[in-house]
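Hi, here's the filled form for the chain we discussed.

Project: internal
Contact: R.S.
Residues: 141
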Amino acid sequence: MLDDISYAAINTPANDYFLGSFVYQHKKAGGEQEFVENDLLDGQQRITTIFLLFAVIRDIETNKKRKENCQKYIFQEEDKDTNTPERIRLLYKIRPEVEKFIDEYIKPENSIIDKWEEIKRIANEDKDVSIKNMANSIVCI
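And the returned structure, exactly as it came back:
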């Protein structure tokens, strides 16, 4: 996907780029939460790659506003006025080990730079294919 986007940006910069369709299931969060959530049913790999791209840009970017915007796409701060909880934007509830990787290597600002050697090691050695692929994506980006 990254190669395709790069190719399109270089060779057809005036054209729109079709990223593909995403299929969501709209639902209201349970309990006292009043905000709406969406379950991503189709497009998980593409949205995860974009999510990782935001994390890399956030950590290498020097423009403060761009860094802040990328962080907003990754992590939602708590807002008591709207009853919105603090949380990561993409939840991996069905895969606790992936959720742990995101919490440790993606969620905190500067984590990619601070933990660069660990991420490269994970990309080469981790036994969990999903985590290894995510780390590889970060290294590629």
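Let me know if anything looks off before we file it.
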